[in-house]
Amino acid sequence: MPTSTPERDIDLESPIGGIPLVHQTLPRWAPHATLATAVLAGLALVGAGIGIGLAAVLVVLLYGVAIYSWSRPIEGARKAKDRVVTTAVMATFLLALLPLVSVIVTVISRGAARFDIEFFTHSMQGVVGAGGGAYHAIIGTLIITGLAALISVPIGMLTAIYLVEYGRGKLARAITFFVDVMTGIPSIVAGLFAFALFALFFGPGVRLGIMGAIALSVLMIPVVVRSTEEMLKLVPNELREAAYALAVPKWRMIIKVVLPTALAGIATGVTLAIARIIGETAPLLITLGITTGTNFNPFDGRMATLPVFSYYEYVNPGIPPEPSLERAWTAALVLIIIVMVLNLAARLISRLFAPKTRS
Amino acid sequence: MAKRIEVKDLDIYYDKFLAVQGVSMTIEPRSVTALIGPSGCGKSTFLRSLNRMHELVPHARVEGTVVMDDQDLYGPNVDPVGVRRQIGMVFQRPNPFPTMSIYDNVAAGLRLNNARISKSDLDALVERSLRAANLWSEVKDRLNKPGSGLSGGQQQRLCIARAIAVQPDVLLMDEPCSALDPISTQAIEDLINELKTEYTIVIVTHNMQQAARVSDTTGFFNLQGVGQPGQLVEIDDTTKIFSTPSNQATEDYISGRFG
Predict the structure, then answer these.
(1) For chain A, is the Cβ count within 10 Å smaller at the N or the C terminus?
(2) Which of A241, A248, A359 has its CB closest to that of B112?
(3) Domains and CATH numbers, chain A
(4) Cα(B126)–Cα(B47) distance, rounded to whole angstroms?
(5) pTM tops 0.95
(6) Please, which residues bridge with residue B172 across strands?
């Protein structure tokens, strides 16, 4: 190929084997410009009296149509479709993000008012109107969730170990089936189960912290079983064989080789399971009720928890209602912060325990 | 401490499927026995039945006798864990324990069995095993680093060190070099030559040159046809198998006419 005048002689447009390698593309600012135009059009529509939600939908549609009809003649059908699908993916992503952002903004803005030291150091004992705090509910939530984890983690992990390492045939299949069924139990049913169970022993109307822990563990066990099972299945069989070939008995192989290898994943799963149940309200409403004082003993009487505290402050506000409503929002904020800390802890745990390959 | 193994009329099953039929052979102590043959002919299955690893597969079973030291390994009341304590194994793919350091990997056989051993004795044992596996000089400065950070060839030698640290009588190797490059393969073959002064070694290999290089005795496994069980066609001195085999199928296989 002659190279004397590079601009004309090398024909990049000519097809090789029928397919051109070089296409014309839209300028890099094309999507931004289209979006800006669409947003401006949307603002104009809002000014003309159309609702914001409808305007947003119209903006997305307008953008999709505009970028397609601009791209189609220049870039070809495939690129144009790519741009439309990109638009759809981004739009649905933003749509999914919307409730999350909305919840966080609302809870922070309304909960910030009472996010003070008194909230974390005082219970509601003798408080009427303003002041008071959720110390008793925070303690209650930590005790109940801790107890629930204490019950669920050993049961769930041992079940998963049985299913992965020992389970064969009908029994294993039946356990797997019932674990799946348990995953779908509505939380209120778990609460009623614990309520009915304790009513058998102590008569109806009994309220104990341990009841709530048992109700929560009914919800937590299947989650722990599932996540642990998946993690144990990820442990390569070669490691089990290597341990067997070193004349290690099976039970010790599981404890010393399989569990440490899967530990990071199991710990993450357990943490996320705790985060999942810590915000449960319905079962605790039935089994624990609410109280104004701090109760450290889960085997004696009612206990307050953050979700139930928040619920009661909201449905039974005093007169005037404002202090109660503020406490309800702050309790919700504290709950969200606890869940976030648990999620961060899960990440940290998985990083700390993960098998390392270097250094 | 090397021991002789006598296999008699061994049939190996996966549930109802007969995978290997009627194997009889004597594995001599302080020698290398190579098992060759086409894929799927039951070499690995046979090897795994020697230290009762075969039965880890659900519904897998064995008929016949494997006698070591006048003791049938498949006799009643024989503990498979005890059998594996005397017959170690190295696998096709290097499989060091990912949660353990190089040191802990070598010590794993003792640690996992809760053997009571002093720190200095364990240090000595780890060094001796790594030296025996020709790995000591490469890893002695990073014993506390993870074993999975080593190269493939080093990992395989680490696995050999781990297997000989428990001082077995017999060492089984299931295609130990098939995942390795020629340099690492050479290192492992040299190692096998050194180890055979102390251990009885049985090695499965797809590489006939390797069998010719490292082994004293070679056994040839073959399938009669698809769905038929694998059989031991011939076992003899390696030099004889590779020069004047008595069976036509063996000659066809080693001369590259099939397989």
Answers:
(1) N
(2) A248
(3) 13-113 (no CATH), 119-353 (1.10.3720.10)
(4) 27
(5) no
(6) B89, B202
